Amino acid sequence: MNRNNMVRGAGRGGRGMPGRGGMGRPPFNRPRVLMLRPPFDLILAEPAFPRCKPAPDDSALTQALLKRHTELCPTPTEQAAVLSLVTKLQTVLDNLVVAPGDFAACQLEEVRQVGSYKKGTMMAGKNVADIVVIMKTLPTKEAVEGLSNKVNEELNKLMRAEGLAPVTCQCNERGFTVTAVAAVRVLVTTLHQNLRKLEPEVHLDYKVISSHLAAIRHSRWFEENAHHSSIKVLIRLLRDMCARHAGLEPLTPWMIDLLAHHCIMNNPARQALPINVAFRRALSLLAGGLFLPGCAGLPDPCEAAHSRAHTALDLAAQDHAAATAQTLLRVVARGGHRYVLGLQAFEGGKDISTEITVWDGVVVSPLAPAYSDAPEPMDTDDKDDEGVQDGVAA
């Protein structure tokens, strides 16, 4: 076969081979494949972009991050209060699993600690722990109320024995909350094979039950993969930043956990990055579109293959998060990290993510939304109003 035929494709699906996409089959009937692309990440691309001069001194940002983290850590008193209540509640629930006695409202399979308390990422002023209770039986609203009353009775016996103030239990759509000096949210779920038997009018909501099972998977993954202390430091900093800026508020704790783990550990050296580098990387990735449509995002290790964590956000929230991160990243680049971290309030109480600010003569203005849910007008070739018919002037 000569070179001209090879170039024109006669031997590889051209006119001579109709079975390989040539004349025998239309060439454009193949389904389009959605290609998810990651945002540019300087940390991963660093081998291709060697540094020409030494890295600038970033000690000011490092010190500010560590100072803010110290403020965000719970006090020893808060930690002791949560530990005491969790220990007593775990004892009561474990006894109901092993020896329920005359308790017949429901049957318990297992009790698991989840959430920030289990992961070691609790925040100051939020001394609340989470425990998931897995029922063997179906989680009816009556069963949840019966379990709440039983826990309240048994737990107050322990509190009176130690001369402590009584606790209260309040039922809600997720289970019930035990409140004393601290608080523990008891999240009720059931065995996986029972999910298909749930009825909306009788049992707890299906999505709520499923989210509690997911919380167990998240805590297990975190314990196995994200035990490095720098990851926990970055999680606290990111949660605090998200809570103070409306554009980042929709990010869930699980998204923040995955983002912090990625920014600290996912690098060519497979070693934990310094906290200042990881913080800048997190903002850069969010600003670069990590959680935007069409981006690879962060794979969810606890869900089915090809599942992305950020798909839980609607399109408007994805757009707002990227725009807010871009604004905050520009402020950090101009030396305004103390305002981004919350160490210092801006003049007049402005929110730097939504207001126009000036840094050393550089104006930083928030970006306008790129996403709009309004339908776009349809283009039409029928322009009779302009006296044009079928491309020929009337």
Summarize the structure.
The chain is α+β, with helices and mostly antiparallel strands.
Descriptive overview:
- The chain is globular and about 75 Å long.
- A 5-stranded mixed β-sheet has the order 1-2-5-4-3, sandwiched between helices. A two-stranded antiparallel sheet has the order 6-7. It has a two-stranded antiparallel sheet with strand order 8-9.
- It has 12 helices and 9 strands.
- The protein is α+β, with helices and mostly antiparallel strands and 394 residues long.
Fold blueprint:
Blueprint: H1 3-8, H2 42-45, H3 59-72, H4 76-98, E1 108-114, H5 115-119, E2 128-135, H6 141-161, E3 168-172, E4 175-179, E5 183-190, H7 206-225, H8 229-244, H9 253-265, H10 275-287, H11 315-333, H12 337-341, E6 357-359, E7 362-364, E8 388-389, E9 392-393
**Rounded radius of gyration (Å):** 28 Å
Largest sheet, in brief, is:
5 strands, mixed
- Low-pLDDT stretches: 1-22, 382-394
How far from one another are the termini?
56 Å
How many DSSP H or I helices? 12
Side by side, the strands of the main sheet go 1-2-5-4-3
List keywords for this structure.
disordered N terminus; 394 residues; two-stranded antiparallel ribbon; alpha+beta; disordered C terminus; 9 strands
